[in-house]
Specification:
2 copies of one chain form a homodimer. By secondary structure, chain A is α/β, with parallel strands linked by helices. The first copy, chain A, has 18 helices and 17 strands. In chain A, a hairpin with a 2-residue loop joins strand 16 and strand 17. The longest helix of chain A has 22 residues.
């Protein structure tokens, strides 16, 4: 049978079955945008003739990685807000208040390039200005499952003192809801199905109960997911208790929000009982280890959620919090932070971390039929990883195979040499094929310069970070 | 004045002063193996003429990184022993018992290449067979401060049941001590001072009090440091209590071991009082966050040690424990693990992590006069880092500079594009200049294959890891 591409002589990490589905001397055949077959090299070579055969001796072929929670636009202010309390208001806000839709778009482009270069093929992007950002995915050729942030709070929310109840403005909520609907109408299923959309309520504390219900009805109508921050911080919990006399998760349960459509992001402040309730109701948990570790110094209850039978995935969150958007980083942090939280090195083994960015992630975000494993009929989203890089050397296959532990605990992401999405190589030999990286990064740099100049006038003279600048620590 | 090289138009992170000593539009002049001057680009260009001028616009020049604790030879069995309890005996030992001096040498070469590619210029290598390993440093051109492991326990120590007191054999101790002396005689100050040696007692539990004292006398004689595991695990503490009725640190204090010559590695099991005692006595603490997180699920008391006024440095430890040997990884883990240990995002700021792999590390390991910062008269050990990589973009300089947080929390190590040691570029355009990387990695791969074949016959059929293989998790 004729196919477009066969990749042969590889270690193939299919992520099928209960473990990692490793196949030594494996091959993958790709036709159009689909995986035609996965099997032993010899069998695939006999059964298929291809326009291009790639000899992947000494390399690993694996599913593309899924970043289940990212705000790509915010990468434009990466690194201005670390090592402080009250990260959002103290650190980010002096910059964020000057970030325009155009800045978001440029930051997003830079951030998607960053992700693709370290093997991310699916981005669950959750941001304001998503209608401006989503063309980046069309251009780069990555898979995206996007949501427009919906809330009812004014743009100067960062200036509202901590402890004060947020004001809700119905017209703001309506405008943002309309933006999310426009996104769904224009992009849901676009680019040969590569781009799909979700609803994006910002958090249970940032909008009225009525608007939350309206969002849920739309998720039913469009048969898609609701992507939402849940129990993401003590400020959210305080707002909920002040407004409704209930913490976030009991409130959401009461209004019927905890169900299989919901991607509950963070759960940083969830109690054990609340965590188990979310799992029991069938909502997915999205865990952002790097970001919550840096911003809050907390390890969210991911282990507890999985133990309770929940469906989970990892996300890299925003660059000004986590600094990097690299799912290899997230695998490693999820595993190690859970080990130290429970003082148990046997906990959270490498294969679990790998599942949480591939097959388990695909199922959690509603793409389980399409991506997350290498299997005939699924979309051809895959990586070629060079196992001859020092960080992955030597390769040992017997009596213990060392590839999976090394992928999780040693790989930096730069070992990924080629990235295919929907049957097309969007990166080869570590260079993006669809955009000019240098031009895009320079555009982001110019945008950051504009924001920086505006922030000079508005940063508070008593800012902890300014003092750190003066002390020569930055 | 004529110099050999000037690097201009760079961000220069000098690591001088109390913070990071950042200089924008800076330059460095290098003559022979020394830094001749550091200053503003304009001034350096006016004052020096150089055989080679490197325009580092958009790049960062910073001191080479110091890995204060690494066992490079053991990298030959990277990744065979993760996610289990009793890591050493259950996971490593079935492989380690087949590792020869030749295998050590080849694993070491691979591991040093890995480190150099991510910016490590100084390796405090602590391993058996060091006399066989040290020529690798001569060949690659990296700086090394090495020690031969000294203990009095038989080679089949991995077979001794947990809980049983180790037997000591004086003839083993003597042979290993003589190896360390031979190392000192042949290599201390070799290669233009690039290679120096320390004494390497394996741990207070692995040798007699008499041999420990003999080692200490030799450290005085050679005027160098003692590099030793201290309070590295519960097994060590059990041995000490059983043998001497004392925990490691009180025992070492009693025999006068806690002083400025000592590099006390790990302190995993040290109590608060013990930690403070080590700091007070002037010994340095070497902290290996990644390794101890994976092997033990523990965050060692580094923050507490620094608070007590101690001098500290970071190390990457052995690849079969930590999997990777990358000081960018260690900076990030040290910062985030200490934040989550104390639930405090403001703790352990980025500049502290950076100091612990540069200037503070140099002082801790006894090289403070030579390396660790960029300053006229110090050895020219430096990195050129590409700030235009997506992970370090955009560069923001005002009102808050984002370079240091991004180096610590976002850089993978692959952003390092050139590495200079002792005035020579040993890596340029990300390729080693002194050895053929491909050949060296292939030699390590062949060695690993031999070990793997031997391990097939000796791995315990009830091994947890074998069961994980059977379950398809590896």
């Amino acid at each position: 049978m004729n196919v477009d591409i066969i990749i042969t002589n590889a270690f193939v990490l299919t992520m099928e079955g209960k473990g990692v589905g490793m196949m030594e001397d494996g091959a993958v055949a790709i036709k159009d945008n689909l995986i035609e077959a996965v099997g032993r090299s010899e069998d695939i070579k006999q059964s298929y003739s291809a326009a291009e055969e790639i000899d992947a001796t000494g390399k690993l072929v694996m599913p593309g990685l899924i970043d289940a929670h990212i705000h790509t636009g915010l990468a434009i202010v990466r690194g201005v807000s670390q090592d402080i309390n009250n990260w959002m208001q103290e650190g980010n806000w002096p910059f964020m208040k000057h970030v325009s839709a155009d800045h978001h778009q440029k930051g997003s482009m830079m951030n998607i390039i960053e992700g693709v270069k370290v093997g991310t093929t699916t981005f669950c992007d959750y941001d304001s200005h998503m209608n401006d950002i989503v063309p980046n995915y069309a251009k780069i050729g990555a898979r995206a499952r996007v949501a427009e942030l919906i809330n009812e709070i004014p743009a100067d929310i960062g200036d509202i003192p901590v402890g004060e109840l947020y004001p809700f403005h119905a017209e703001i909520g309506d405008r943002k809801l309309q933006n999310n609907i426009r996104l769904l109408e224009q992009w849901h299923g676009a680019e040969n199905g590569r781009i799909t959309c979700m609803l994006g309520p910002h958090g249970p504390d940032m909008m009225s109960r009525e608007l939350l219900k309206e969002v849920q009805a739309l998720a039913e109508k469009y048969d898609t997911n609701v992507h939402m921050h849940v129990a993401q911080g003590d400020r959210e919990i305080e707002q909920m208790v002040k407004r409704y006399g209930k913490r976030s998760i009991p409130f959401l349960d009461e209004i019927g929000y905890l169900n299989e459509r919901l991607l509950a992001v963070h759960l940083t402040e969830a109690t054990k009982e609340e965590t188990e309730l979310v799992a029991k109701r069938g909502a997915a948990m999205i865990n952002c280890s790097g970001s919550i570790g840096i911003i809050d110094g907390i390890v969210p209850p991911l282990h507890e959620f999985i133990e309770a039978g929940g469906s989970a995935a990892l996300g890299s969150d925003q660059a000004p919090g986590n600094n990097c958007n690299n799912m290899f980083n997230e695998m490693k942090f999820a595993a190690i932070l859970n080990k130290v939280k429970h003082t148990d090195p046997a906990m959270f083994p490498a294969h679990l971390a790998l599942r949480l960015v591939t097959i388990d992630a695909a199922e959690a975000v509603g793409l389980g039929e399409e991506v997350g494993s290498l299997k005939a009929g699924k979309k051809a989203d895959l990586l070629i990883v060079d196992l001859a890089e020092p960080s992955l050397s030597p390769v040992i296959t017997s009596p213990i195979r060392n590839i999976v532990p090394n992928l999780v605990y040693s790989a930096k992401g730069s070992e990924v040499e080629a990235v295919m999405v929907d049957g097309q190589f969007i990166m080869r030999e570590r260079r993006l094929q669809t955009v000019d990286e240098t031009n895009e990064l320079q555009a982001a740099q110019a945008a950051a310069r504009e924001i920086s100049q505006s922030a000079e006038c508005t940063i508070h003279p008593e800012s902890v970070l300014l003092k750190r600048m003066e002390a020569g620590e930055l």
